[in-house]
Amino acid sequence: MRFMMLMIPKGYESVAPGTLPDAKAIEVMMRYNETLQKAGVLLTLDGLHPPSMGARVSFSGGKPTVTDGPFAEAKEVLGGYWMIQVRSKEEAIEWASRCPASDNEMIEIRQVQEFADFPPDVQKAAAGFVEMQTQNGQYQGA
């Protein structure tokens, strides 16, 4: 089973553009990332720039509207993510619990929808999806 572990740092929604974590924080997080890698559960990971450097596209009435960050209404935003391959949600929770996160950080765990999870009519509607994942070098789920 693939799970995303989504890092949600409190206060990140109002961080200035270009703000980066300090080297000490990265060093500690890299040791955790190496543990995930050595255990063979890490598929990919990335950190995200602050929302003040991003944009949102909404579709009210079917028409796209772009809003540049920061997003004053946001209460929680993503700071980064890990994609892991584990046997269960409990194992994903165990890995997330080992993260050297600070008091102002939280990790949300979400299971990835696998192609095989869908009924035949949905799989038919998504014809070509598995090939897209394979062509992009993305892990192909069970």
TrEMBL record:
Domain of life of the source: Bacteria
Annotated YCII-related domain residues: 1-115
Pfam families: YCII (PF03795)
Name of this protein: YciI family protein
Stated family: Belongs to the YciI family.
